[in-house]
Amino acid sequence: MSAVLAVEVPYWGQSLLRVLGGLVAVLLPAGTIVYLFLFKMMSFMQSRLGPMEAGPYGSLQLVAEVGKWMQKEDLAPENADRTIFKMAPLVVLVSTFLLVAVIPFGPDAYFTNFAVGVFFGLAVSSISVLGILIAGWASANKYSLLGGLRAAGQLIAYELPLVLATLGVVIQAESMNFQEIVVAQNTGAIFGFEWLGNPFIFTQFIGFLIFMIAVQAELTQAPFDMPIAESELVSGYMTEYSGFRFLIFFIAEFATAGIFALIASLLFLGGWGVPFVWFDWNSLDDVSWWMNLVGPLIMLTKMLLLTFIIMWVRFSYPRFREDQLQTFAWKVLIPLSLANIGITAILKVAV
Amino acid sequence: MIAQAASDSINVAQNVGFGIIAALMIFAALSVVTTRNVVHAALWLVLVLAGVAAQYILAAAEFVAASQVLVYIGAVMVLFLFGIMLTRAQIGHEKGLNNPTWALGIPVAIVLLGLLAWVIIDAFEDDVLPDRGPTPTVALSDQFLSIYLIPFLALSFVLLAAAIGAIVLARKDR
Question: What angle do the packed helices B78-87 and A127-138 form, to 10 degrees?
């Protein structure tokens, strides 16, 4: 990122650009997902129109909602542990921002080019559990505490398949760096067939399925929404939150959905690149100046496709029972992902 | 590192960062033992462990830093908090959190500090650490699977034994 569009940028300018880029990369997916899917798609699936009043087709509804949340009173229950109660949503949001830091959007359009990007991303995504757990505890509300405990149990259980599912990709790409994984997919070939490159969704289809299921659970979206089950726990750990602290939880939830979709598109769908054979590229250096602009658009398209699937599942399926949820993680997903790693490793060495 | 400030090839920004993070870690570590609420103590401990991860990043050990976050903050501390909240987790000050023999900890801590400091100073003396980039993860794994294979496997067996022990203790049909 030292030379954006062939313009040299000083270090402070790079840092400023990175911070602004991070804000955009967190808020833009969150806003898009909430409007397109939560407001509109869910309404259409339920035979209603959704928000229509604010702006054309309700497109300014988001602004109205944010305005509404910002002007509400920032309440804390009388018995709550105030410091922790106020800190908890920020911990969740910090996890989201740390997560976006490793995602590349183009050959040079990245925040950090971390050698162990995949591993770091999965590690920092687990920080949000901490925020959820202390939010539930500090609320001094038994429903909140139950929700927080359920969330912790679920997130720990589904973090394992999430990590294990990515290992197959790491073995195939021989790298934990997102850029190298993207290049490996776009220069590869499936059994000598080069035209599509080698997006790992084909060779790692089981890994992709496990990853998407685990993401659904990590986001506590239906059918894995035991921690915030409205009918039992009145929104679980979020029960006592109001005003902009609730808004932070809300933004973090949908921003994380978008970022996990971005990670899935990097790992399984070829990321920001297109197969190199399409335009006869030999190296990225000649094309990087315009791929830095087209790359984010490609990433956004893939993100919308994957979040569409996440939301489609969310609006379609009823909730898992707590024991079914744990059994599914420990007895189905984890053994399956271990088998996937074993088979991938054997094939990698043998072929 | 700080003792080597006289040398001109020292990375000043790195040392300043080290000092700030170390000060934060010491404050957080003291708070762990002085706070009067179990959950607060656990949260201060999170800060200490995050500080360790930050120090690893400063020392260009990316993989170890990510492991530190994944294992200690993402798993161990979450389990700690989970356990505390399942058993007792009252809000506000608690009584009886201090062990009556807490003063014994002070000499032990001082001896440990002296021992570690002596070992490090004795081993490195006036060496200046080379200013180098992060170690590639491939190099790490090559070491684990060649010269450090046996210690690595032995450690795995310790963890396996602990896991089996936990299952045996938790079984109902004994």
Answer: 20
CB distance A140–B91 less than 8 Å? yes
- Token pair for residue A194? 């080069």
Distance, CA of B165 to CA of A233 (rounded, Å): 35
Complex prediction ipTM? 0.80
CA separation (Å) from A276 to A171, A177, A280?
A: 22, 19, 6
- Residues on chain B touching A126 (C-beta within 8 angstroms): 69-70, 73-75, 78
> Of A126, A134, A155, which is closest to B70 when you measure between CB atoms?
A126
For residue range A272-289, list pLDDT tens digits in order: 877 777 776 766 666 777
Token output for B48: 């200490």
Contact residues, chain A, for B134 at CB < 8 Å: 115
CA distance, residue B132 to nearest chain A CA (Å): 14
Q: Supply the pTM of this predicted model.
A: 0.84
End-to-end CA distance of chain A: 37
What is the crossing angle of helices A11-33 and A243-268, to 10°?
100
DSSP A65-133: HHHHHHHS-----TTS-HHHHHHHHHHHHHHHHHHHTT---SSS--S---TTHHHHHHHHHTHHHHHHH
The encoded tokens of residue B24 equal: 């934060």
Are A146 and A71 a contacting pair, CB within 8 Å?
Answer: no
Residue contact B40–A134, C-beta within 8 A: no
Write the pLDDT tens digit of every residue in A244-262.
888 888 888 888 888 999 9
Alpha carbon separation from B65 to A296, B17, B57, B131 (Å, rounded)? 28, 16, 6, 18
Would you call A177 helix, strand, or coil by DSSP? coil
Using CB atoms, which residue from B46, B70, B91 is nearest to A130?
A: B46
- CB atoms closer than 10 angstroms to residue A153: 19
Going by the DSSP 8-state scheme, the letter that residue A277 receives in this structure is G
Contact flag A81-B81 (C-beta cutoff 8 Å) = no
CA distance A225 to A210: 17
**How high is the pLDDT of residue B161?**
92
Which residue matches tokens 């009556």?
B100
